[in-house]
Write a structure and sequence with these properties.
mainly alpha; 8 helices; transmembrane; transmembrane helix; PQ-loop_rpt; PQLC3 protein; MannP-dilichol_defect-1
Length: 198
């Protein structure tokens, strides 16, 4: 890929990640409800993001390879807090915060722990998408799930593919996330269309 085009892809991917959860957050705040969203899916997504970020930091990857992760993590945390608020489970949010905080530090106690966590990271992140899909299939209603947020996730996953050819484990992660993000986006759009025709 040409250097100018590669730079543009990096810039647009970072810009997308900087606002990736905002459409979802706006939809939840406008509705005053988190209908259509799976808390378990978001918790798994957060776990996958934290492990991936911790791995990148631990092994000294260049900052530009993971710069968007803290921004996405912050957005997921804010979204989770809003959902917990609307579901009346604010105390549970504190419990999850403590678990994730402890997990962040435990990941690097030993090298094998972070390596194992990274090996499992793709499964955890894939599970987050599958849990969201299952939730959509069970309710047959996309509710407040934002197709724009999931569409941006498709772009973010696809944009990472060209930069990760050298690391097979990370490349597999992005291919799996791309496929699952497309699937969730299509499911949200399908249920949104089905609901409008009823």
């Amino acid at each position: 890929m040409a250097p100018g085009l590669l730079g543009l892809v990096h810039l647009t991917a970072w810009a997308v990640c900087a606002v990736i959860k905002l459409p979802q957050l706006v939809a939840v705040l406008r509705a005053g409800s988190a209908w259509g969203l799976s808390v378990s899916s978001l918790l798994l997504e957060l776990a996958g993001l934290l492990v991936f970020l911790r791995y990148q930091i631990y092994y000294g990857y260049p900052l530009e390879t993971y710069l968007e992760y803290p921004v996405v993590i912050a957005q997921v945390v804010i979204l989770l807090c809003c959902i917990m608020h609307f579901n009346g489970k604010v105390r549970r949010a504190l419990f999850y915060a403590v678990i994730f905080w402890v997990g962040w530090y435990m990941l690097t106690l030993k090298k094998w722990i972070i390596d194992l966590a990274m090996n499992l990271c793709t499964f955890v992140s894939a599970a987050s998408k599958l849990v969201q899909l299952q939730h959509l299939w069970e309710t047959k209603d996309s509710g407040q799930a934002s197709a724009l947020t999931w569409g941006m996730s498709v772009y973010a996953s696809a944009s990472k593919l060209h930069t990760t050819w050298c690391e097979v484990l990370i490349l597999i992660r992005f291919i799996v996330m791309l496929i699952l993000n497309i699937w969730v986006t299509a499911t949200i759009l399908y249920y949104r269309k089905t609901k409008k025709t009823d």
